[in-house]
Fold:
Amino acid sequence: MNFHTVLLDGDGVLYCGTERIDGVKETLQTLMQRGITTVLLTNNAVKIPQHYATWLNNLYFDKQDVFQADHVVTPLDVVVPFFTQHADDDRPKKVMVWGGTGELEERIEQAGFSISDDPKEVGWVVVSELVLDKDRTEKKRDAAFNAVQMYRAAIVGTNSDIYDMHTDEEGKRYKAVTGSYVGWLRMGKANPPMFWLGKEAKGIYQVVFDRFNITPDDGVLGVGDRIETDIYGANNVGIQSVLLDSRCGVDHADDIGRYIVRAQDRAKFLGKPSEFAENRVAEMAKYRPKKVISNIREILG
Structure:
């Protein structure tokens, strides 16, 4: 594989929960020595970029300042350009935030929108991880649902991940995350406008392209462990995609066929009936990684 910029997912690729992953330190060092722009591209909108840079430096580089915060891109980086782009939409410039941290609300306000918990007056409901107690209440959950279903607020999800793997004293289990909450909000009669800030959409990649002054044609590689976000996202913007099939990853090589079948079904609803065959081929291709690897070292060739 020939590339000059590599976009690496976080959990499942660069680390496994709080643990190191074999081969990551050597791979990062080699990439940097070769002058390859190395970016952590994550769908997690809870932590700020500096957190990830510090985390990687502590985990692999003895707390030395090796990995820089400006080489970390998260859905938080998409908030301002997204809402700026939609500033003139025919809906209130008030936003209900269900999940996330204060950083998410601050960035929404930077774009000229205000925060409100009144379902009657908001035009948008932004959904992220439920990390704060105030977002886990029945009152907040019902307010978000009413904003969407009764008052037709648009939904903005920081990512579409339905679950994460979670390990605690009870062992390994699934944990519902942002995509599950978004799905629940859409279960009523309304069919609200739906937007994503993560790898499911092109905006987060445009942040990378703009920041490093590159285009998809400049040799960009995306590496991840989720087919529906990492692989789909990379293929959707026209860059090379690699699936890391490892013990810590969410998806594996055996899962590719399942996503392709789902894409084939989805193609029926894209465009005119006469375009079904073309849409089916295009959609199915987005879920096929260029390569499947079992260790991050393999991207070095």
Q: What stands out?
A: The longest helix spans residues 49-60. The radius of gyration is 19 Å.
